[in-house]
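Quick start: read one record
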Amino acid sequence: MSEPKRTGLLELLRASQGCQFVIPVYQRNYTWKSDDQVKQYLNDLENVLNGNYRNHFLGIIIYLEKSLDFSAREFSVIDGQQRLTTTFLMIYAVKKILENSGDLEKVKQLEGQFLTNPYSADNIKYKLKPLVSDDNVYRCIVENRMDEIEDASSNVLKNYNYIMSRIQKWTEDGYDANQILMAMDRLYVVCVPISEEDNAQKIFESINATGSKLTAADLIRNFLLMDLRSDIQEEYYAKYWKKLEDNVSQDSKALEMFFRMFLAIKTYTLVPKNSVYREFMNLVETNRLEIKVLFEELLEYSKIYNFLYESNIDNVNEKLRVALVDFRRNNSDLPMSIIMEFCRLYRQEKISEDVLGSLIDAINAYLLRRSICDMNSQNISKLFPAILKKIIEKCNGNYTNILSLLNQEMVGNTASTSGSYMPTDKQMYEMLHLANVYKRPALRIILDRLELDNNPAPINLSKLSIEHLMPQTPLEEWLEELDTDMETYQDNVHRLGNLTLATKPDNSKMGNATWDYKNAVIKDTAHLILNLELMQIEQWNLQCIEERTQKLIKQICTLYPYPDVKLIENEVDIIDENSALETALELIGEKLQTVKKGTAYKSLDGNRGYIITTSKMYPQGDKEKYWFGYREKRFEQLDGCNELHLILVGRYKKAVVIDLKKQFLDDIKNKCNVSLDDEGNIKHYHIVTFMNPDGKFTMLLSHPEIKEIDLSDHIIGII
């Protein structure tokens, strides 16, 4: 890198004969505004012009210097494009003033020194080559073709017009073009030329670290294009990058997510959001990927992204269309990596359209079952890249059994953390039966799907909203009719069975009215299948809610089925809770007094207290998994004990008894997953343990990263 040097702004341009300042395609757009940065630029220049400032520091200009031939050089601008572009617009505005005054000799001198390379080839005739997006408007300005400009929103045009108006005012105040140009030369910059031997990307990153923060997509674009010749940059930008943005989005967050999922596909790891650029660069450099080949692959995945999220899907078969609709409405990026790769297999004709639909359906079922049960999505953020890796390895080019492999991994093998399991039909009932489901995102998706799957008539879902059959704010008649108190009422009002769909006008009309009125309104909207049976009910009550809740849970389980995967669980072999408790009491090894039968005990001297809890075995691949809920409040019933123990009993063919002291629990509880109540308070911590194939007993910690710790020293017996 050459030594930085201070120079007048016009002197920089005067000394650059045969050179062209190129704004590379990887740079951000020309974003300076006439009422902000350009206004300040001209205010500073005006202060120099009228003598308030002797001179003024305009900023730093850093450019990568490349020789084109013996007489021509290219200055690829790394930093300073905004002030350079504005400066050239400024000089062209002064030129226009000279043309209007008829001073053609000064015009010629101005062009030859500052604006053009008169003895160079046409491709570098102009000393500034702006961004491709700005080039047309800029050419119209410099070639006096203003009437051909079609983009009235262009910042180049707006700023040029603003500059012209300011210069005209200065001339009215008595300043001529020569004085304005001399003032411009008292604006100075610090130039930092770098050579091709320097690491331009590192310099670019350093420069932008202190300014407006670049996005991961910005950095990736720069990384891919910066080292290429300018003509290749433009070719690849138009052929690949611009099309990629068209397919995905120009929004930085969407692009970042796209590259994050691309990395997940290539590395089978979900990298942190703040590491996307570094990991992408590492992928390219480690594998020595050819830029053109990489661009072609990125473009292919961008087409897949567009297919999944944006494109019209009316031309796909019904199975795939329905699956894609659910996927889009669920709006989760968690499974995007695996679904994008499945789509790529489909585009390569390695799996059929039906299989693709079934794969997406299976993932939808997994996500929607978890969502309607209000299960934490953070627990599965890294799951799908790991599943993809297993599937690709096991398929080994033959994708005949890809659906069964996906289901096996989602249900049994890879989903090995406490919070990542897919609820079974039984668990769906347990978690939904009495639950407040009203504000759960999956509710509307599921109700819509229940309606569409059973109604042959066309339904405009956008005109529907969720209706409470027993209203959220009841009239006194409701409480009297139900013969219940407000607490019981509130416990039931947001249950699944009390919720349906209605048109928005009908929803407003029904309000908190009595059932007779609501039923009459519902009969007017009998085209909704969800409401057909409601019309036959004379009085809506708690029993109706209970029965309808059970029915809807069953329908949901059918609509989003639990996969038919053989697990190793065998209920006959699992010892019962009473036997497990007896085993635990025996292994504690001292006589105890009962505080609460089956759960809480004290030593006879009252010094030691024990809370006992059990868990059946949940198969997890080749592991035995046991899940316990730890509630700190349970120790309150052991008040006065100096030493507190949580006794865990895993129930399978044998009982595994584990002794965890409260001090140990206090040390690890913040590293465990939790369940929260409706107010966001912790209900209990998830204590998840595994018996591994080698006999080693471990506990799963989830924060700040997933890891297992050895519990061997805490086992007091296996009987």
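The first helix runs from residue 9 to 14.
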